Structure formats: C-alpha cells, structure tokens
Amino acid sequence: MSFDRTGFLDQVVASDQPWLDVELKTQRLWLRQGETTLLEFQISSALNGAGELNGSGCTPRGWHQVRAKIGAGAPNGAVFVGRRQTGELYDDALGRAFPERDWILTRILWLSGLEPGFNRFGELDTMRRYIYIHGCPDTEPMGVPGSAGCIRLRNHELLDLFERTPVATPVLINE
Predict the structure, then answer these.
(1) Neighbours of 102 (CB within 10 A)
(2) Does domain 5-174 have CATH number 2.40.440.10?
(3) What angle (nearest 5°) sits at the alpha carbon of residue 150, between those of residues 144 and 151?
(4) CA 135, 26, 45, 72 torsion: positive or negative?
(5) Tens digit of pLDDT for each residue in 32-73?
(6) Based on the number of CB atoms within 10 Å of its own CB, is 90 exposed (0-12), middle (13-18) or buried (19 or more)?
(7) pTM
(8) Residues 30/33/38/43 CA torsion (nearest 10 deg)
(9) Tens digit of pLDDT for each residue in 4-19?
(10) Which residues of 104-140 are buried (b: 16+ CB within 10 A; e: fewer)?
C-alpha cells in the first residue's frame, strides 16, 4: 500500500490544523495552519544531507508526525541525553568542557515517519533513528546544514514552536 503525499497534504491543509513544513534546501521551517503561515524559522538539518537509512546521519524526508513532546517545563538551555534531562544547563563553559557532544537542548519534538517503506519501519524508521526537532547552543549556525540528522532550532524559537505544536502534528520534510 503506497502513501499518497499529495492527497495527505490536501487533507492537512483542508483540516485547518497546525502543521510543520520543513525545506532542507533553504534550511527553513514554517508553522502553518491550513494555508496560513504562523511562524518561520531558520534551521540546521543534517550535515550529511537528506536520507532515510539508519546510521546515515541524514535528515529523513517525507511526511512525519510529532510522536512525543519532551521537556515541558524544563528551563531554557536544559541538556537532554537519551530524551532525559541531565540536570545540566548549557553554557559556554559546559560547551568547552565537552566539545564532542551533540547538544540537545531545551525541548524535543520527537518525529515518527508516516510513510511505510520510506520513513517508517525497518532500517528507514525515523522514530527508531531518534530524529527530533530540538534546541541547540546559540553558537551553532542556522541556515546551514550541521546536525547529525535532527532539525536544530534556536532555543527561544523552539520554546514558541513547542507550545503551538500538539502531539500528532503533521510534519512535511522536503529537500
């Protein structure tokens, strides 16, 4: 059974529910409701480009949904490892002490693929790859690829997006 991307987009737009539109080429994310744009942000997606394979370090394409929201109530700059708060708050000193860490900060929107055989199930499963929309240090550049597969946002922008994005929000990631 194939997934009808165009038909799904038509349904999402017609439902007037919030949805996220991510474009890897321009490194942009839009929060939309129906056809109306509510927010627009620069992002940083995978340094390795687009791709769905587990272990590729790529950002998966296609239709997804927000499977879980993690970190509600955590302070801005809270550090997460394995989707759990470490008790640390990110600052420059912590960044210098652990320069090799891929910092996941403030909040997590955990994505799950909706397209069987493309970004869902087996070696192509977005959720099993732990692909998130998450915060990062303010020193990380936006507008250019740089992540290990996730979609990075500025922390203050992620806080706003997190509050406006319910669980099961559709997410379209295009090249």
Answers:
(1) 12
(2) yes
(3) 50
(4) positive
(5) 999 999 999 999 999 999 999 999 999 999 999 999 999 999
(6) buried
(7) 0.96
(8) -10
(9) 999 999 999 999 899 9
(10) bbbbbbbbbbbbeebbbeeebbbbebbbbbbbbbeeb
